[in-house]
Amino acid sequence: MGLHNGDKMMRYEEWSKLARKASKRSLWMVHFCTGCGAIEMPPVMTSRYDMERFGIASMATPRQADVLLITGYLTVKTLRRVIQVYEQMQSPKYVIAFGSCTINGGMYWDSYNTIKHLEKYIPVDLYIAGCMPRPEGIINAFLELMKLIDEGKARGWERYQKYYDKYKENQRRVFNFEVKEEKEEKEQKREKNEEH
Amino acid sequence: MKEYELFIGPQHPGITGNMMYHLWVDGDTVTKAECNVGYLHRGFEKLMESRLWMQNIPLVCRICVPEPDVNEAAYSMAVEQLMDWEIPDRAKYIRTIVLELARIAAYLMAIGSYAGSIGIYTLPQWSMGDRDYILDIFEQLTGARVYHIYIWPGGVRWDMPAELPRLIEKTLNYIEERLKLYDDVLFENRVFFDRAVGVGKIPCNKAIEWGVTGPNLRACGYGYDVRKLEPYAAYDEIDFDIVSYPDLGKFDAHEAGDVYTRMIIRRLEIEQSIAIIRQALKKMPEGEHILKHPNWLRWKVPEGYAFARVESSKGEFGYFVVSDGGLKPVRVHVRGPSYTHGINVAEKLLQGANIADVSQILFSLDICPPDIER
Amino acid sequence: MKSIELLGKGEEMHGRAYIKLSADEIEESIKKLKENGFNHFVMLSCVDWLDKGKFELVYHMWNYEEKEHAMLSVDIDRNNAVMKSMSHLFPQIETYEREIHEMYGIKFEGNNRLTPFLLENWPHDPPMRKDFDSKKFVKQMYESIPFIEGDENEGI
Q: Once rounded to an integer, what is the mean pLDDT over residues B244-253?
């Protein structure tokens, strides 16, 4: 993956295969209830649909976590904080998106404050269908994520690094921050073009 | 000492959901608190103005996430007021049973989350597991665990199946036995007593002026409950008591309006709800379960202003519906109980509190951010 | 009904009292009802009548002894929406006025906490007004943002 010395590349591949095999059995998730779907998380975390038997536990800070769960819709105000949490997590990190609101806007498709497609702002590894997904569905998704990690296909964090500028531009368009400055820049450019 | 600014932010296990409190702290005491909400604002009221009357019901139940049946009931009652409809008796009893089961589930979740905030981590594991048996009853009755879409204007969607009363009776017996274990672990625990008595007191002579409702108001000494003041569903035909300070059953009463009294009142109201469900199952009459609806695509509700209120586990839920005789509502305004609890009351109670008690005070007021900002 | 007797006008609508007042009488009326048992302030709502060109503010109050609900309604002009603030009578009215200011654009004089409440960095029109088209806004703001190209399983 970037190193082209014959011997070194082989050892790196074997080492990362072993690391993935170990890390898939101890995924820690960030404790962040972002939307409606968070009401089905306590049954998954406690004794009925126990998720600790797969090695998954909930963690208070993003620095110590591997998985970020986006449970449902996201408003623009929460998206800013979710991006800060996502950028504080350390690689390799994964994102699971719950529900139909992250896929195409879901029930709030004509609301002025929710974002409609999560894939434009954060790279997503796995989607769970439903409104809202059942606890058995959530556990099935965790097992599917473990399989993807084992095969080396869950590479959202690498996509974020590669296309960083495009993600940042999409995020800024939603946050309305540089509305005045962009308007002034556009006017200046238009004046320059007219002069020429 | 210098004053520090602390953000108890949206990603935190010590607050009840997705909201933020901005605190100014001097040493160990909080000098000023400000609430910052808006992280869950979906613009429900704007969405409801562009959908037909029946299309609003799946939207309405997503306003309060831990207890969605209360919203469906209040919206349906407001539409029935405008149409001048009287629902059949069997529907009234079924609505009572559904609302009381939702209340028990919400109280179990509130008690579990509160215990987690003071460090007794066994109780959330137990209470979330017990609450799941109630969600199993809902799944057999309505088809879904969390969002039921079951209470419609004019009655309820389907009739109750014949085997359900036996399952309900079995679950209620199980929960009654478990309550004794909860007493051992939390309510008769010396740690709970030392941490909760005298903390976070609401001044009782100003409680109504501040807009406090629900179990928080009953903990200040007022015995007001919407189920007795303005009976809806079948509550006027069922016998039950209102639990308020200072009659706290087998527990001793200490100070009015503090964290201890609020949690004890929630614990005692679970027993009252169990008694209500048993009476309703015995007294349920036969009959129709819903009135006949007109064609939904052409249903016009007559002009007027209607207000319906319902007692939820957090306080008083109110719906103000305005219609001008058209296919879609002109205005639907939702009043959640946490609007006053989470913003005005919490900001005043957090002044002068220890940092270690901030989480406890917020969980005991039972604040739910989706119904502040819809 | 007691509120209709105290204020001298109004009608009963579906079991509630609905009283129409002018903008000058509203403060006296709320004080009079508050002294006579109506000590629970339920909420403050705003209805936008676009064709009639007015905003209608409705103050809801509840009496625990008489079990009566009163709706006091005030009309304001839509193009010049200014109203006196009632936050000195009940402390929670301050939050209701803050939200109505953000969602409808009505100015309340005397309330010095009219800061952004639910929306952050919102430079467009107040969203709850009837002439704010939310479907057009969604298309222009959210649907026009492009997807990121690239293969799903592509890495560095």
A: 83
Percentage of residues in chain C with pLDDT exceeding 70?
96
**Inter-chain residue contact A109 with C145, CB threshold 8 Å:** no
Q: What is the pLDDT of residues B163-216, one digit of tens each?
A: 999 999 999 999 999 999 999 999 888 989 999 888 888 998 888 889 899 999
CA dist C131 and C9 (Å) reads: 33
Cβ-based interface (< 8 Å): residues of C facing A: 119-123, 127, 132, 134-135, 137-138, 141-143, 145-148, 150, 153-156
Query: Closest to B307 (Cβ–Cβ): which among C69, C90, C94?
Result: C69
For residues A159 and C150, is the Cβ–Cβ distance under 8 A?
yes
Domains of chain C: total: 1
Structure tokens at A159: 């996509």
Q: Using a CB-CB distance cutoff of 8 angstroms, which residues of chain B are in contact with residue A108?
A: 42-43, 47
Residues of chain A with Cβ-Cβ distance to B131 below 8 Å are 43
Task: Enter the DSSP assignment of B205.
Answer: G
C-beta atoms of C156 and A177 within 8 A = no
**What angle in degrees, to the nearest 10, is found between the helix axes of B259-283 and B89-117?**
150
The answer to whether the Cβ–Cβ distance between C153 and A155 falls below 8 Å is yes
Give the ipTM of the model, two decimals please: 0.91
Determine whether domain B10-14+37-373 maps to CATH 1.10.645.10: yes
Structure tokens at B31: 């000098």
pLDDT tens profile C2-44:
888 888 888 888 888 898 988 888 888 888 888 888 889 999 9
Residues 6+ apart with CB under 8 A from B148: B61, B68, B69, B72, B98, B138, B142
Token pair for A4: 């082209």
Residue C146 lies in a domain: no
What 8-state DSSP symbol labels residue B97?
Answer: H
Give me the sign of the Cα torsion angle C94, C97, C103, C107: negative
Q: What is the CA radius of gyration of chain A?
A: 20
**Closest Cβ–Cβ partner in B58, B66, B128 for A43:** B128
| Domain spans in chain B, listed from the N-terminal domain onward | 10-14+37-373
Q: Best interface-test mutation with A: which of B8, B19, B40 has the largest number of A CBs within 10 A?
A: B40
Q: What percent of chain B has pLDDT over 90?
A: 49
Give me the count of residues in chain A: 196
Residues in chain B: 374
Which of A78, A82, A86, A114 to probe by mutation at the B interface, max B CB count within 10 Å? A78
Please give the model's pTM, rounded to 2 decimal places: 0.91
Q: Per the omega criterion (within 30 degrees of 0), is the bond before B302 cis?
A: no
Say if residue B259's pLDDT is above 50: yes
- Residue C84 domain-assigned (yes or no): yes
Question: Is the Cβ pair A176, C123 closer than 8 Å?
Answer: yes
Check pLDDT > 50 for residue A130: yes
* C47 closest CB neighbour out of B304, B307, B331: B331
Contact between C64 and B224 using a beta-carbon 8 Å cutoff: yes
> What residues of chain B lie within 8 A of the CB of A110, using their CB?
47, 50
Instruction: With CB atoms and an 8 Å threshold, state whether A113 touches B47.
Output: no
Which pLDDT value is given to residue B92?
92
pLDDT of A196 strictly over 80? no
Percent of chain A with pLDDT over 90: 16
Residue A34, φ and ψ in degrees, nearest 5: -90, -20
Q: What range does the domain containing C113 cover?
A: 2-141
How many Å apart are CA A59 and CA B13, to the nearest integer?
A: 9
CATH number of the domain encompassing residue C61: 3.30.460.80
